[in-house]
Amino acid sequence: MAWSIAEVARMSGVTSRTLRHYDEIGLLPPAWIGGNGHRYYEEAQLLRLQQILLMRELDLGLREIRAVLDSQVDRVAVLREHRQRLLAEQRRLETLVRTIGRTIAELEEDKDGQHMVKINRPENLFEGFEQSPEIDAEVRERWPEHWEQSRQAAAAMTAEDMERWQRAVTAQMIRLAEFMAAGTPVTDAAVQAEMEVHHQSVCRFWTPNAAAYKGLGQTYVDDPRFRENYDKIAEGLAVYQRDAMAVYADTRLS
């Protein structure tokens, strides 16, 4: 049985663009290409994709993943290591569920029908969130200079710096969610002021041009990991952020 690239993307959560990139670098060629130019995958390719995704969870780069898959490395040992990482992630997510639960409990509806947050302990908002910026393996592979610049900037930050950065990022996500809930258009000056802050935050790690900044916004929507982080704050926030970043890129970076 064979599946089209669109079907594999739907099943796996990996975008068609990423699957095409995997083919281009020789990491995951399709089983065959139809007369219409569409890629088709069979069970062997699906199993290989699962292994790719498992090793991405272990923070391996695409070149490292290909080396493992093309070698005789004990894949059972890799899976065992991955299982340990998943158990640690499970504990973190349980903490995050408690964090979000506390925030929900502190929500109250004001007289205008908008939801405002009454924060009793501000530190409770951030318990369980990752304390380091996540660098996608595809970025490392396709834009190594930007990835290296980002890695060096992150390495130079102290634990306190990283915590302050993460708190600032989360606080901005909450502010954007409030704009979105109020129906504020992404072209609004206040929203674009938030994009200025966001752009400056990104520039701590690497300096995107207009196209790259738009691409980053699209990644927030396309990548399930990024989108999940935004949807933890408010459903649809990733799309709202992407659209606001596109406006900022067109008006300030072009």
UniProtKB/TrEMBL annotation:
PROSITE patterns with a match to the protein in the record? HTH_MERR_1, HTH_MERR_2
- Supply the Gene3D superfamilies for this chain: 1.10.1660.10, Antibiotic binding domain of TipA-like multidrug resistance regulators
What's the short name of a Pfam family annotated to this entry? TipAS
The lineage's top-level taxon is Bacteria
Q: Where is the HTH merR-type domain?
A: 2-71
Q: Where is the signal peptide?
A: none
Keyword annotations from UniProtKB, A to Z: Activator, DNA-binding, Transcription, Transcription regulation
Q: Which InterPro entries match?
A: DNA-bd_dom_put_sf, MerR-type_HTH_dom, MerR_fam, TipA-like_antibiotic-bd, TipAS_dom
SUPFAM superfamilies in UniProt: Antibiotic binding domain of TipA-like multidrug resistance regulators, Putative DNA-binding domain
Name of the protein this chain belongs to: MerR family transcriptional regulator
Q: Which organism is it from?
A: Streptomyces orinoci
Query: Taxonomic lineage of this organism?
Result: Bacteria, Bacillati, Actinomycetota, Actinomycetes, Kitasatosporales
